[in-house]
Amino acid sequence: MMKRPLFFFVLFYISGILLTASFGFLTSVLFISAALIFALIFFFRKTSVWILFLSFIFFTAGSINYAYSTEQLKSFYNFTLEEAEFTGVVVSEPEKNERTTNYVVEVLKIQTRDKIFKINKKILLTVYLPGNKTYPYGQYINFTCKPGIPEGQRNPGGFNYRNYLAQKKIYATAFVRVEDIKTIDKTRKNFIYAASIAVRNRIIESVNKYIPKQKAALLTGMITGYRENLSDVITNMFSETGLIHILSVSGLHVGFIILPLMFIAKKLRINRKFSNSLTILLLLFYCFITGFTASVVRAVIMAATVLFGKIINREADVLTGISFAAFVILLYNPYSIYNVGFQLSFAATLSIVIFFQKFKTALGKLKFPGYLTDVVSVTSAAQLGILPLGVYYFNTVSLISIIANIIVLPFVQIALIIGIILIILDQINVFAAGIAAQIANFFISLILYSTEILSNLNFSSVKIITPPAALIILYYLILLYLRYSNKTFKYLKPTGLVFFLIYAVLLFRLICPPKLEVVFLDVGEGDSIFIKTASGKNILIDGGGEEGKRVVPDFLLDYGVWKLDLVISTHSHADHATGLVPVLENFRVRHLLLPGGENMDNFNTLLSCIDEDRTTVFRCFKGSKIYLDDKTMITFLNPDKNLAYSDSSLNNGSIVLKFEYMDTSILFCADIEKEVEALLAKNGEFLESDIIKIAHHGAGTSSTELFLDSVNPKAGIISVGKNNYGHPSITTLDRLTERGIVCLRTDRDGAVILKSDGKTIKINKICTGDLKNEY
Amino acid sequence: MKRILISDKPLMDLTEKIIRLLYPPKCIFCGELLDIDTELEICPKCFDKIPFMPEENYRSLKKFDYDSNWDDLVCACEYKGIIKEAIMRYKFFDKPSYCRAFGHLMLLKLSGVLKKYDFDMIVSVPLHRKKKALRGYNQSLLISREISRKTGIPEKSNLLCRVKNTKSQSTLTREGRYFNIRNAFLIKEKEEIKSKNILIFDDILTTGYTLNECSRVLKEAGAEKVVAAVIASPITTV
């Protein structure tokens, strides 16, 4: 710690951010204060007092900065209720889509009906049907709208839009028709930013002049990092082969800027301090051109640290440089910690720094040729670091990335150099540029061609479920252990480590035995409920509608589920069954359960996508029971074998089931209406449950008083989204309140998660993440 | 040899601390990181390997086959082993950061003459403008600045300038070196030099011609005492 203090200080800063993100500001500051006092008392050594103290300062700074940024999220909360007039300045280039154009606007003034607010926060403005109208960077505009707060995370593993925009310091969204925007005859421009936009457009223009569209998009993407014009097909191709990093500007590019400049400066015998300073300024400008993505900022800061070190006669330390880069980025915006690009970039660089030499010496012994050794070592080292992140975020692992990099990377380097030459030549001589373009075109084609072949290989990448966070941490710990085992952990033998791990896992199991988990997913208007029993069986009840097609598979992968023991389709209505299609297609489903009363033809879409060798289809009636294990049981209460259900009353024919785990029970009512409820109520005592999934998205035609009284639940969960039916109805909500039933709604609370240890049930909801109620 | 710390000020100033945060000190020989508040950028292991030159050896260096123009000579190390490697890196592989460690090593040996003479200024053997541009820094100047910073003796290398872009001494024979370096230096302001005690510094002493020539012009300009100091010399006895 005395040797590389900044590295540890930045670790403290990041801990401050992470701890505040998970436990809140007060808890983390109290925690670190306690830790500081503890350290001062027990490790009191005169020399390290200021190090301890600075660690505390850095931690608190991270904590404060994160808490402050979180407050910023609320910037527009007060203006979401009614329309207001916004005045602001466009601070981005227009981003054109098919029917809309997006701008980032820095709002300066908000005029509500009775008041004027001064503010300077960014908003994402979507202009609907803009025609040919665009608003250039720096333009003042005025528009009337009711801004929206971007949605946070709705489901476990789901996308967090609010967080995503907060990474760019954007705190609200506005959707405006082009007629409602007035331009004000006034501009405000940052000279450097305006210049960088001009340079970027010039680059794109130059390349497009000579090279066909898609290839030009690839080349400009490689040089500027902007990949808007690049088709998804190509992007996917690169990501499947583990080559996506060539599309994000990073150390490679920064190297291409520095090395030729240094070479020229040396040849021209320019004063080195001067040339170094100039290079630093140029790199900064490159940051502007490439839009300050985490990877380029990281690379530039690291390079600038080395260059500046030469100016003041200091030798840079790579790890310190990396930490400094992380610190600068997180100081500007602590929310960058959530940025996938940030995480990948730092994981890859750190990993290269730590493992490159190891790989190189190992390969050197095998007498590999020089170029191969370097590329293989760099790629393998980088892959080691980003592997878990790739699995965590994209659920894919590229199996051929090392080979792909060996093959494609040299072409990329040549294409990049020639691309830059092309752009410079284009400003001087069109003919010479044309020749350069031919060469560049050739290499770009080579890149595309080889990447396509590689991505078409069947084994190029595999889909993998998201590993639990603990496993990822374990992975990194083992990596570090392997690297430093002969130094730091001298006394910790590998066998000892294995035993320790097994012991730790057993202990963990003992302290927290597996629980029953029930997740009511937020699939908009529709039902989808996932159950994981304490013995590890996976059950899915319905899959929601169109939204479910995306949400449910994502959720399952994220939850670490690749096989489902039981899928229940309660009835064939679209808002319950549609989302099951991708599940049946892509996951291993052992049993599919359909309602006995309904015409089987209604399920043709579902039945057509199952593999009959793997999946058995059952139909169920009232009275059927499934014993999942000796503590867990499902009892079916509907449909009744003795009743006929017409297609017009599918809701009443839907499957109702009571799920029991030891002393706790949950009643799933699907979409039944008052008729069936009345029938069920006759059952009397058996109906009684701790939790009820409110029937039919909280419709007023269900959840009758008699029924609720017989079930007598402590909490009710309503699966509901935006709809035109008036779900959930006020009468239902009132009935729940009258009976003191706690009501949770997926439209407000996001996914609702129940955890039962067999005696009590804990309810969590995604939208606040807070533990709310306990029974 | 025991480690001696010249400076007895443990309190580094704030800027130095901040710089060290970003550029943690490393051992110039093995590259290992050192404690942030280290006085010397050399690790204890490497320190033991430094081939210090015993005083009687460099005393004998003074007896050259020509009349030396300096009044005293200090040579810190023998030009071999890790010192040789480090000086090569320092001069030719863009490692200006070594200047602090070398300055410190030099100081360890300078304590004797510092007590004996009351120096008015430190100068270093200048590099020609073009050569400096190529290397990016003057290796001797950086070290003499370092010594000046630690001792408080003003650094006035700009008084001495190189008017002849000589060939590198290290590429020449003994005879060639002598003629190569003759009349290569000039004093800018002779008034400043007059009756002053001067410490003149260079990195390596091989034949002594360079330092001798510098001492000559300094003496001619009226310097009272001239003491030459070098980091290393390949000559152990003459």
Please, could you describe this protein's structure?
The complex is a heterodimer of chains A (775) and B (238). Chain A is an alpha/beta fold. In chain A, α12 runs antiparallel to α13 and α22 crosses α23. Chain A is globular and about 95 Å long. Chain B has 238 residues and is an alpha/beta fold. Chain B has one domain: Rossmann fold, CATH 3.40.50.2020. Chain B is built from ten helices and six strands. In chain B, α5 crosses α7. The two termini of chain B are 24 Å apart. The interface between A and B is medium-sized, with 25 and 23 residues.
Taking all Cα atoms into account, the compactness measure Rg of chain B is 17 Å
Major β-sheet of chain B, in short?
4 strands, parallel
Low-confidence stretches of chain B: 1-11
**In total, how many domains does the architecture of chain B comprise?**
1
**DSSP helix fraction of chain A:** 40-55%
Element layout with pairings:
The complex is a heterodimer of chains A (775) and B (238).
Chain A lengths: L4 H19 L1 H18 L6 H24 L11 E7 L4 E2 L3 E12 L4 E13 L10 E7 L15 H6 L3 E8 L3 E7 L3 H20 L2 H12 L7 H9 L10 H17 L4 H19 L3 H18 L6 H15 L7 H26 L4 H25 L1 E3 L2 H28 L1 H27 L4 E3 L5 H16 L9 H18 L4 E5 L8 E4 L5 E4 L4 H13 L4 E2 L1 E3 L5 H4 L2 H7 L1 E2 L1 E5 L8 H5 L7 E5 L4 E5 L2 E7 L17 E6 L2 E5 L5 H8 L9 E3 L11 H7 L3 E4 L11 H9 L3 E4 H4 L2 E5 L4 E5 L5 E4 L1
Parallel strand pairs in A: 4-6, 12-14, 13-15, 14-16, 16-17, 21-22, 22-23, 23-24
Antiparallel strand pairs in A: 1-3, 1-5, 2-3, 3-4, 5-7, 8-9, 10-11, 10-25, 11-12, 18-19, 19-20, 20-21, 25-26, 26-27
Chain B lengths: L13 H9 L21 H6 L5 H7 L10 E7 L2 H12 L6 H18 L4 E4 L4 H7 L3 H13 L8 E3 L11 H8 L3 E3 L2 H4 L3 E8 L4 H12 L4 E9 L5
Parallel strand pairs in B: 1-6, 2-5, 5-6
Antiparallel strand pairs in B: 3-4
